[in-house]
C-alpha cells in the first residue's frame, strides 16, 4: 500500500516569539522543517512527503528542500489558515494511489523515523488510525478561573504526539465532515485523530517517543539542542 506523509508547516510560531515562521527556525544548524522531513523520508514505508508551507513562503520552502537528497519524493503546497486546513491542502495534493497517510507536525522535528514507520505499519496491518501517545507525568486538574474544580485520573490520560497515521479514505472522510460541520465545534478540534473519533472511527495508540516532543516555546529549542547533541554523540560512537 502506497504511503505518503503530510507535514503541516504553515504556522507562525507565536508562542515561540517573533521571527520567521516556526518551521523555518533553526535547530542544530537546520530549520525544524528539514529535520521533520528527513525523519519521514527515512521511514522505509514513506514514498512521498507533502509539505504545507506558509502561503508567503512556498517558494522559499521549495528552494530550501530542493537542496537535499531525501530518499522520498518531496512536494510543497500552500498551507491554510489553521492546522486543519493545512492538512486538508496536503490531502488534496495526494496522488490517487496513496492508501496510507501520516500527518506530522513540522513543530516535532526530532520525532524518530522508527516512530513514523511503527505508525505506518500499525495502520497497514491492523488499524484505521494510529497515534503515538505518552503518559502524563504531572498531576492534572480541571480549573475554572483560578479555582480547582476536580483532579483528573491521569492513569487514563495520554499526551498525543505526531506522526499520526490513517487509512486515506478514513482521513478524507473525517476532513470532509469538518469542512461542513459547525465551525465553532471544529475550532475546538486540535488534531486529525480527533476528527476521526468525531465521525465514529476507531483510533489505536502505540507508545510515543520523548524526542517527538513539540517545539512550542523557547525552552523547547534548548531541549531540542540537547537531544541533537546526544544523537550526534551516539552517531560518532557507532
Ligand atoms: N495555519 C497553520 C497553523 C499551524 N500549522 C502547523 O501545525 C503544527 C502544529 O501547530 P503549532 O505547534 O500550534 O504551530 P503554530 O501554529 O506555528 O504555533 P503558535 O500557535 O505558537 O503560533 C505546526 O507544525 C504548524 O506549522 C499549519 O500547518 N498551518
Ligand atoms: C497535533 C498535535 O501536535 C497533537 O498533540 C497538537 O494537537 C497540536 O496543537 P497546537 O496547539 O496546534 O500546537
Automatic annotation (TrEMBL):
Family: Belongs to the IspD/TarI cytidylyltransferase family. IspD subfamily.
GO function terms (MF aspect): 2-C-methyl-D-erythritol 4-phosphate cytidylyltransferase activity
Biochemical pathway: Isoprenoid biosynthesis; isopentenyl diphosphate biosynthesis via DXP pathway; isopentenyl diphosphate from 1-deoxy-D-xylulose 5-phosphate: step 2/6
InterPro entries: IspD, IspD/TarI, IspD/TarI_cytidylyltransf_bact, ISPD_synthase_CS, Nucleotide-diphossugar_trans
Annotated GO biological process: isopentenyl diphosphate biosynthetic process, methylerythritol 4-phosphate pathway
Known function: Catalyzes the formation of 4-diphosphocytidyl-2-C-methyl-D-erythritol from CTP and 2-C-methyl-D-erythritol 4-phosphate (MEP).
Gene3D superfamilies assigned to the protein according to its UniProt record, in alphabetical order: Spore Coat Polysaccharide Biosynthesis Protein SpsA, Chain A
Keyword Transferase: yes
Catalytic activity: 2-C-methyl-D-erythritol 4-phosphate + CTP + H(+) = 4-CDP-2-C-methyl-D-erythritol + diphosphate
Keyword field: Isoprene biosynthesis, Nucleotidyltransferase, Transferase
Enzyme class, UniProt record, top EC level: transferase
Gene: ispD
Name recorded for this polypeptide: 2-C-methyl-D-erythritol 4-phosphate cytidylyltransferase
Coiled coil: none
Database matches in CDD domains: CDP-ME_synthetase
Record-annotated site: Transition state stabilizer: 15, 22
Annotated site residue numbers, Positions MEP for the nucleophilic attack: 154, 214
Keyword Repeat in record: no
Lineage, highest ranks first: Bacteria, Bacillati, Actinomycetota, Actinomycetes, Propionibacteriales
NCBIfam families: ispD
UniProt EC number: 2.7.7.60
